[in-house]
Amino acid sequence: MQAIFVQFKCRPGRAYAVADALVEGVEEISEVYSTSGQYDLLAKFYLAPDRDIGHFVTERLQTLDGVSDTFTTVAFKAFGRG
What we know:
Pfam families: AsnC_trans_reg. The protein is α+β, with helices and mostly antiparallel strands.
């Protein structure tokens, strides 16, 4: 599985509704956090290796009601203890 991180800018007052929509409606989601700074939410998704990231982001995420912008980061390797 390939991990991607997507930051979301939401329309005013819509961040919690967008977070709920992600958790309830996008099976590829791992977790979502509310954040400070330029973006309102940070979400982690796991996609199958043959899944087109561009189509996933533009068709499944950017079209959610309340989303005004996204910023996607593709992860290469996870590091951890142990």
